[in-house]
Structures are given as structure tokens and as C-alpha cells.
Amino acid sequence: MLLDQNFVRQQFPAFQEASLQGQAFFDNAGGSYACAQVIEALSNYYRETKVQPYHPHPAALKAGAQMDASHARLAAYLNVDTDEVYMGPSTSQNTYVLAQAFANVLQAGDEIIVTNQDHEANIGVWHRLAKHGIVIKEWQVDPKTGALSVDDLDELITPKTKLLAFNHCSNIVAYINPVAEICAKAKAAGVITLVDGVSYAGHGLPDVGALGADIYLFSLYKTFGPHLGMMVIRNAVAELLGNQAHYFNGAYKAKWFVPAGPDHAQVAASQAVLDYFEAVHDHHFEATSDVKLIAERVRKLFHETEQPLLDKLLTFLSSHPNVTLLGSDQASERAATVSIVPTQQTPQELGRKLVEQGIMCGVGHFYAVRLLEAMNIDPNTGVVRLSFVHYTTPEEIDQLIAALDQAL
């Protein structure tokens, strides 16, 4: 089954926006385009229900029902219970709240394992717990490849290890880590797992239940939705950590890990991402009410669309003499986020040349400073990052390769 990209791109107003014409969008890892369903849901909320939700009048009841529906529908797609879903301002803020919660239940001498492959949001908050006497151990990447070895955990995990924080997919080298295997190893040792899925989820929402993660986080604004951080906390861990919000909100579990309170409109609009997914599904397959089947089919469609394009780009870059490709040159081992370091010019110079040719890309360290330092790359100059998703066309990949060939 081939993805109908004409249909898909019709679902994104950005592709009809006059100011964006002629520009190929390769900065999706920083934030994807929002689908029309989400934009319309936000607009409707602000027009019809921009009130305090859950109060007894009709508009407030409707607003609250929309927020509840987002929790329930997203939980079903992620294969977890509804009360295990939380939505905060961002993934960085969510990890901060989680770190404060863990600080209250861990003891001096307890150990947390973090990687040096992650975005700083899933590293720095845990390192700060060292001031409480928590021992922070680093699961280090191979400095040549940027990859993690699961075997290293056999020495890192001890009876004192309480938490393992790692990413599903690096936002720089893009390796897809074997989350289910890692979580199973940690669980066997009684270790809680926290998985940062920000750089993975834009390529298809994961089956968190099947992965076995105790906590899973990603950003809805990188999955075609509003600017919120999505967080799954399995019930056993939530009960261990307890309510982090106002004490009198203890009876409202959805508020436990969102102490600042939710953005009502964005929470309500979050379910519209699933309206988009279901539109894609029903355009390609016979309609069904089986949410798990819809999620599996859409995830597979996205993956099978991205992989050939990724393979073509990797083939070009891995053989070019004037650029260093970070991470694997095998599309099957990574997501469609490609970071490069030019050898004859700075990343900033290359980025500027690409932009002049209509390529929307990113340049910098992308908050993965520790990873770049481990790979002997200066984070002050960073890398050029080229990231795409299922709505990227073969023609745009050709445009990118031609621009790279000229710029390099």
C-alpha cells in the first residue's frame, strides 16, 4: 500500500500557504506542520468554548468533554489506560516535574542511569538530583557512531539503580533504540524506565503498552498537533510518585503531573491529530473502529513512505567526499532525521546556502550538546540537521540532494 501524498498534503494548510511555496520543509524534528484538523479544532475552541471548563453551563461542559475525549482517544492509540495520559506545556517541563517528583521518593545513594545520547531535557534534570545525594551514572555512546550498546547496561545496573532514562530515538544520530528490549532488561532488575520519544513519535505514534516503558514522553507539536508535551505515566509509577499539583487536586489524577494547569484549548484540540490519522486510514483502507489496527496501519504507511526517501538521501551523503554523515548509513536502523558536518565549510555556511536554494533546515546543537562533545564535534558550530516525515515528497528529496550537491 502506497501513501497517497496528494491526499495527505491537502490535510496541511502550510502546503497551500503562498509564503511557503517553493520551499521544501526539512526542519520537522524541530516541529512539524499542524494538520488542518488541529487548526480547526483550536479555532472552534476559541470561538465556542473559551471558558473555564467543567463548570455547569453548556459551553463549559462541552469544553471539559472535549478535553476528556483527548485523553481517552490518545490513550487508546498509545495502548494505555486513559488515566495514564498527561499533557503539560512541553516535554522539557514534563521531565522537570518528574525529576522533582523522583527527588521526593529516592534516597541518598540511589542510582539513576542517563545517556549522553539524549536531548538535554532528559539528561540535565536528572544530573541536578546529584545535590540530593543521588548517584548519576552515564550510559555512554560509541564516540565514532553515536550509538548505545545494550550490553553496557549489564555493568551499569546495580541493586541500587532505581531509574533508567533514555531516548527512543536520538535527535542527532537518529538511531532507533530497542526500547522493548531495554525496558525488559530494566524491569527484570526492578528499575523504572523513562523513554523520551520526541524524535520518534513524529514517524508514527508508538504502542507504549507493547514497549513496556513505565514513562513515555513526546511532543504533540512534532506529531502534527498543538504545542504540548504528551506524557504517559503507568499507574504504578504515578502512585509511587504521587500528586505534584495543588494538594486539593489529589482526586483529579489528570492534574497530578501538570502543576501549572493545562492549556485547555490545546488539550481539547490534541485529539484532532487522531482525526487526521483516521482520515488517512479511511482514505487507504476500509473503515474500522479498531483503534489499535488503525494505529498499526497508519504507522506502517508512514514508515514505508519515509524509508525509501531516507535511503536515497543516506546513499548520497555517505558517498560524498565533502561531508560527514552522523550515525548509520542504513535507513533500517534510523529515523528520517539526518545530521551532517561539512568538511570544507562551517555548518552555518552550508545551512545558509541550502536556505538560499529553498531548503528549510536547521543548524546548531539541538540541545544534544553532550552527544556532540562525545563525538568530538564542537557544539558551538554544531551540525546541519535535515529532518522529514511522511508528507515529504520524492521531488523534495531530489530538490534537497541537488541543493546539497551544489552547496557542498
UniProtKB/TrEMBL annotation:
Transmembrane segments: none annotated. InterPro entries: Aminotrans_V_dom, PyrdxlP-dep_Trfase, PyrdxlP-dep_Trfase_major, PyrdxlP-dep_Trfase_small. It comes from the Bacteria. Keywords: Pyridoxal phosphate. Residues 25-400 form the Aminotransferase class V domain. This is Cysteine desulfurase family protein (TIGR01976 family). The lineage of its organism: Bacteria, Pseudomonadati, Pseudomonadota, Gammaproteobacteria, Oceanospirillales.
